[in-house]
Design brief:
47% helix, binds nicotinamide-adenine-dinucleotide, Rossmann fold, alpha/beta, 255 residues, seven-stranded parallel sheet, 8 helices, 15% strand
Length: 255
């Protein structure tokens, strides 16, 4: 098991789903974590379950001041920062015909601008400190164009591209940047997709959700399984993996 003893990480979207699981897994491996979420109460609840090596913070990743405040609160509490997991995200469901300019903007603001803002705020701190690692949570949707989520697909493709750009630019500062591309992970976001889709295909939402895991795995991916790969990418053992978008969808995406 990769250990991250005494390291400190900021996890955006840490109030639930993959972000909360990442907080738990990083803490299990010896790190301290700041869970930053639009839902600050949820982040505080997760942090309280983890214990003294976790804090929960309210944070809106679309707002640079809010992310800067989260970074400062993390350093104030734990004394250092070794990296971030840029996981906060949102999905808008609907056909491309129904997508309003506001829907499009919101998707880009949270998923793309939020990832960039987080990287910049954390990256500045890492550069001063001599290095670190950032993992962006993209999606297999950024590689595969699934129907009814055009803005989401485009936003996650942008996160993959941004990851490559930052990795190239920041390598000289000792900062490693990678992305993971999950799919079929058992979280509230996947349940939202099933709830939206079920009446449109005449299916029961629970049955549809139960079948949304990757075929080769035969079940949904557990958030902790994604978090384990994130932990590895944050570690020094991943130093020769740079600017990559690693599929964590149990074989659904072959490229
Ligand atoms: N569940 C999946 O199958 C799946 C697949 C591919 C990618 N992802 C990605 O994984 C990440 C986590 O998603 P999840 O499945 O755990 O969903 P989730 O909805 O459970 O978690 C997303 C979290 O992000 C937070 N958030 C939303 N907007 C925010 C903002 N502006 N600032 C701060 N926090 C904000 C939410 O409050 C929530 O806690 C997302 O980026 C998502 O796109 C999920």
């Amino acid at each position: 098991m990769v250990m991250l003893t005494d390291r400190v990480y900021l996890v955006t979207g840490g109030g639930g789903g993959i972000g909360a699981a990442t907080g738990r897994v990083l803490a299990d491996r010896g790190a301290s974590v700041a869970l930053a979420d639009l839902d600050g109460d949820a982040a505080e609840r997760v942090a309280a379950e983890i214990g003294p090596r976790a804090i929960g913070l309210h944070c809106d990743v679309t707002d640079a001041d809010s992310v800067r405040a989260a970074v400062e609160a993390t350093v104030a509490r734990f004394g250092r920062l070794d990296g971030a997991v840029s996981n906060a995200g949102t999905v808008h469901l609907g056909t491309a015909w129904d997508l309003t300019p506001e829907d499009w903007e919101r998707e880009m603001e949270v998923n793309v601008t939020g990832t960039f803002v987080t990287a910049r705020q954390v990256g500045e701190r890492l550069r001063e400190a001599g290095g670190g690692a950032i993992v962006n949570v993209a999606s297999n949707c950024g590689k595969v164009g699934y129907a009814n989520m055009a803005a989401y697909n485009a936003s996650k493709a942008a996160v993959i591209s941004l990851t490559r750009s930052l990795a190239m630019e920041w390598a000289k500062d000792g900062i490693n940047v990678n992305a993971v591309c999950p799919g079929g992970v058992d979280t509230p976001m996947l349940a939202k997709v099933a709830d939206w889709l079920a009446p449109r295909v005449g299916a029961d939402p629970d049955e549809l959700l139960a079948g949304m895991g990757p075929a080769q795995l035969g079940r949904k991916v557990r958030p902790e399984e994604v978090a384990a790969v994130i932990a590895f990418l944050l570690s020094d053992d991943a130093r020769i993996i740079r600017g990559q978008a690693i599929n964590v969808d149990a074989g659904d995406t072959p490229y």
